[in-house]
TrEMBL record:
Protein name: rRNA methyltransferase 1, mitochondrial
Species of origin: Hesseltinella vesiculosa
Ranges annotated as spanning the membrane: none
NCBIfam families linked to this entry: rRNA_methyl_3
InterPro entries, sorted: Alpha/beta_knot_MTases, MRM1, MRM1_MeTrfase_dom, Ribosomal_eL30-like_sf, rRNA_MeTrfase_TrmH, SpoU_MeTrfase, SpoU_subst-bd, tRNA_m1G_MTases_N
Amino acid sequence: MLRWASVTRRQYTTSGIDSLYGIASVANALHTQKRRALELKVQKGLQHSNQSNKKTSVAAILDQCTKRKVPIHYTDKGELNNLTDNRPHQGIVMKATPIATMGLRCLMPLADNTYQLDPSDSKCDPVELRSPSNRLPLWIALDQVQDPQNLGSIIRTAHFFGVDGLVLCSKNSAPLSPVVSKVSAGAMEMMDIYTTRNLGTFLQISHENGWQILGAAADGASLDSLSHDQPRILVFGNEGTGLRTNVRRHCDTLISIEGSMEQQQRLGVVESLNVGVAMGILVSRLIQ
């Protein structure tokens, strides 16, 4: 995981203070320390839960907050429901500063199993990353994915498969909110997430630096035809409209997932996969 000590970050989240909720999200946020924890609110009696796993997890959160002198307040379920708009908070809500991202201009060439991230802010130094020992790097770029449920699912899957990086459009994308963190099962707190002001330019320059750009599209080709000699960026489009025209232009190849039914049989039933599901299938194939 990238350490941010020497990197200037730009917020790309909801404004103000986040009410982070759910055991996994809160525990991971405390572990990575990408946010500043301000206050922990715990449902009364939760520390005495009969569920051993939950009791152990809550105890660990309380221990971390105590060590860091984060104020702990016990309250009723109603207050926690209000803070989370009645979402499943598991009796834990932590007030924290928003998580922040680093803006990127492009990915630099891969050489000697290392490559650099070129920040969009000229005042920031490039960040060096090492390629995995058993494969070439794989990054995910999201072209205006706006549903927080989909974004959370994508982040969770990307983290599970060990995707090397995730890039979002800085405009017209779902913000990195507590909802996204909860849906990601806390993976949003663990994974390094980046933004770009112009996805087309990011892809173009990264391609010039030796990265293969793959676009996920219904009219794409089979994965079997792909070469495996370049680092890759896999691009997914908006849930409703797919990849924008200017983004498709910068893709070397469009790829798709073949279903078991003929196209004419699928029409009127299920024409395509959810973007989060499609991402999981494609990444599991590409990362092998």
